[in-house]
Each structure stands twice: as C-alpha cells, then as structure tokens.
Amino acid sequence: MLGTRTAGLPDCRPLLADPDDLTLAFQPIVDLAGATVAGYEALARFPGSAGPDVWFAAAAEAGVAAELEALAIHKALAAVPALPPNTFLTVNVSPHLLGAAPVRAALATRPALHRVVVELTEHTPVDDLDALRRQTDELRARGALIALDDAGSGYSGLQQLAVLRPQIVKLDRALVSDADTDPVRVALAEMLGEFAGRIDAWLLAEGVETAAELAAFTQLGVPLAQGWLLGRPGPGFAPLAPEATRLVRAQVARATLTDSVLSLVRPVRQATLGEEVPVVPPVVLVGPQDEPVALLLGDPRTAEVYTAPVSLRVHPTTGTSSPSVA
C-alpha cells in the first residue's frame, strides 16, 4: 500500500511509471598500485535538482522504497556486459531491502553475478544480521562480491564487519576527508585496514578529493580509492584520465621510496659472538670488547643465514679508522 507523501519531497510514482527518467552515472574505483581502473560504482540520477538521497527518502515515505531500488539495480545489472575487461561494477542495495521481493526480482534478472559487487549502504539499522548473512551468502554463491559502505560510522560497526565478512570495506568519507592533517583519522583508517586484512577484504578510501588525502592513503597501503580527484561520475565507463594516472603513479612511487628508506635506517641488532642468535638477520656480532667482528646476514634468494667477517681498516689518506666488510 502506498503511503502519503510529505510536502517538499518529490513524487516517485511518475518515475516508477516511466523508468527512463532514472539514469545511471558511473564513477571509477582505482587500483592504486597499478594506477588503473579496477571497477565502477553505479550511481542513480534523477530528474530535477533533488539529489538521490532525497528521492530515496521520498520513496520510503511513499512506501515504494524497494520498487525504486529495484529499478536502479535492474538498470545497473543491464550495464554489466558493457564493462571494460578486468573491471567490476558496484551496485548499491539497502541491507533492510535485500530480502524484499522487488529487489530479489531485480537481482534475479542476472543469474550469474560475476563482476558484480553488491554494496550494502548503511542508512537504517539491520535487526537480523543472521538473515542478512544468509542473503549475502546466496549472492556470493552466484558469483557476487559483497562490499560494506561507510565503515567506521553509523550502523557499519565491527559486528557487521565480523558477521558479513565483506570482500570490500569502504571507509566512511568522514575518515577520508582531511586525513592528511588528522592523525586520528589516519589511525582509525589503519585500524580498519588491519581488520580488513584479517578477514581477507580490500579497503577502499571513498571521497578522495585532494592530492594530500591520496598521499596519506597511498602511504598507508590502501589498495583502492574513489573520489572526484580520481574521476567524477559520468554516463559511461571512462578510463582513468592521464593526469590522474600520473598523480597516482607519483604518489605510489613516493610511498615506495619512503618505505625503502625507512627499511635502510632501521636499527641494526647486536649479539655477542658465539652465543645463540634468536633474532632475524642482519645482526652485528661483537667480541669481548664490544668490537664488531662479523655480520650475520641472510641470502634474499635462498633465505640461508651466513656470517661475513668484519675488519678494521685505516684509510691511507685520512689516518682514521672505520669499520668495513672484508
């Protein structure tokens, strides 16, 4: 039964009667390590100036929320065959509507859901997580991946992450915005990234709008990012723009260099010659007077541990002594 419409909200019923008025835009999701588009998010667009949130709120008010979501899902799935190679398409679904008949029917229009990511948007609480887990397991069995939106805020708590075990965890925009100047946001993102790794999921930074934010998440090792800096929503499946490609590659190279430098300046451990060495090479072995006598090293190819002698040599032009590897 259709509900009454609150004044100021758009009327969804004509939209449902003429589905062509609902269109889609596709925003790229970028694989930062490869500086390539990994996938796209399908975003509903409506006539007039009201945004999608207003339209979906109006649909809920009128009692046709499931029907409107089903229409958007149906259109998104119809676009899957046009995806570029090696990319996926993210389709937004409200968790509390995943079991609704119109939504289930829309998802059934494409029996095999390979290359489809079902993104659970968190705007209302989920009363039965076990039922939601069964529904997402059914989608996984058909080839879909599951993403959880806005992790770190609202109803996307750790309990839902633990129960649903999504393959993609999207950071809330509030954690992404100005992360380059806020160590607390970075720490929270790092915590969620650690959790995502434990459940074998990918972390996605959503809403990246500045080069500094991109640098912060590249440095953290976040694999996926999305935002206006990398590509705005558009009518088709656009490749990553050349300037965005250059920016991502530069940030990845900088992060890699930083990691390499940090690995070179890490403290070198020390042990007494002849004693058992329980630590991992490299280790400086010292004699009874704490003088360096050997280096305990590891072969990176074979992982074999070996000892290299150390001698003290005097440079002929300076007269000063410095340790060197013989």
The global form is elongated
CATH superfamily heading of the largest domain: EAL domain
How much of the polypeptide forms β-strand, as a percent range? 15-25%
Low-confidence stretches: 1-7, 261-265, 311-326
CATH class (first level) name of the largest domain: Alpha Beta
User: Structural class, from secondary structure content?
Assistant: alpha/beta
CATH architecture of the largest domain: Alpha-Beta Barrel
Tell me, rounded to a whole number, the average pLDDT: 82
Instruction: Give the biggest beta sheet.
Output: 8 strands, mixed, barrel
Order of helices and strands: HEEHHEHEHEHEHHEHEHEEEEE
Number of helices: 10
Q: Which strand order does the major sheet show?
A: 1-2-3-4-5-6-7-8
CATH topology of the largest domain: TIM Barrel
Helix content: 25-40%
Number of domains: 2
